[in-house]
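Archive entry: two folds, one per protein. Generate the first.
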Amino acid sequence: MNIDIQDEGDSGSGQAVAFTVQENEEVHVLHPQQIIAYQGPSAGRADRFMDVKGMYRKRKLIRADLTGPCRFTAALPPGYRVKTIQLDSKSDLLYDFRHLFFYSKGVTMQTRVLSMKNMLITRDIVKVKFSGRGSIGILTEGTVCEAELHPFDPLYVDAGSIIAYPENAKLELTVYGNHLASQHMSYHWKMTGHGPVLFQAGRQSRRFERDNNEDGIIKRFLREALPFGGVFIK
């Protein structure tokens, strides 16, 4: 399978991604409504209801299974990109389902249910783990960064920016820094363990741009100076 990013710079209109699927290949697209062009046999596309255990029990999730030979193009919203990750037998990363765009034939998906405390704070129910050999595509907001976990020295990452982390990781939702720092920051994951953590930079970049462009100096000062000002002052 070949993937071609159709990019015209920062036009604000989003990207288009073209997929060329060879004969005997298959790709599962988890956002089929984003497919805007398709070339191949009509029977080469079959949409199905997903059976994802422990997740969205009352909602129907649809995926599109596309079998080669065919070519199709998918549109991405402004600010989003697709990053392709090659899996191997040692992969143990857990992903947020919302970040998933596609996975190839030969890859299987399992779910991991979060604790009730983490569900309430993050509004996530499960994480998704992939196994097998193949590739997956994840939707990201801006640049994807990677950091290695340490068994004892914690890594703090903005909870809304996390893309994936190792299943063995120990996590705790918290804030850090002095009194002023902890008052106006978002929740962070305090993480220890072994393996890589993937996180995205675009979410915070847009927040920075919004704050600078839309807020006066008084509102910005109150948001940062008052306890939990970032929550109550919009």
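Generate the second and append.
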Amino acid sequence: MRYEVVLFDLYGTLIDIHTDEQAAKPWQELWEFLDATGAHYDDAAHLKASFDQLNAVNVQEARKGAEHPDWVEPDVLPVFQRLYAAGGSMASPQLAAKAAWVFRKASTSKFGLYPGALEMLGKLREAGIRTVLASNAQACYTRPEIEATGLNKALDRIVISSEEGMRKPSPKFFLRALEYEYTTPDRALMVGNEERCDIQGAASAGIDGVYLHTAISRQDDPEICEQAVLSLNGADYDALTAFVLDE
């Protein structure tokens, strides 16, 4: 087989999800949780304003001096810790993570694996292919979701942008994932649902890409990605498996 490692995007590729962090519900529930655990704000609106300000500073600090600022991925967890400090309290990383998870759950209205995701990953692993998550995501949101779906056991490695400090489409992000696997770009494949981040980003690192055009692909993404070695309509794991295994 040509590939020994397959990199997977997460949201829109393995997980079908819809979140709205601007809705009132997540901020109200976060406000209630913070208030109950020692950080006090007048109301949810004041809390959101404080979060936005602290997050902007967090992003600015992380991107300062970067050659490609948009490719830098700061971790949002310290922002939740600073929310406690701004609210007159102190929080451990564990308590801040609980607050982040309260917010994430309240902002999520749709969540679940695409049908057949675990079976597909199992078939690839049975064939001796390493399966690696390569996701633009915040670990404090994503790691609990990975565990909830069983992906933590179905994947050989998990690489998350907020933990690496960089994000797709940076070629360095893809190459970092391959370094962990001790392999080279010509032996790897990237599977994702965004043309620029997943397919073009992987190509910039010399990695082939399979494009899944799903319902949560970007609205301006094409149905068929000309740069991909294979374009599929939706999460067509049967076709993906047949391609990878050269069946």
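Annotation attached to the second fold: The two ends are 10 Å apart (CA to CA). The longest strand covers residues 108-113.
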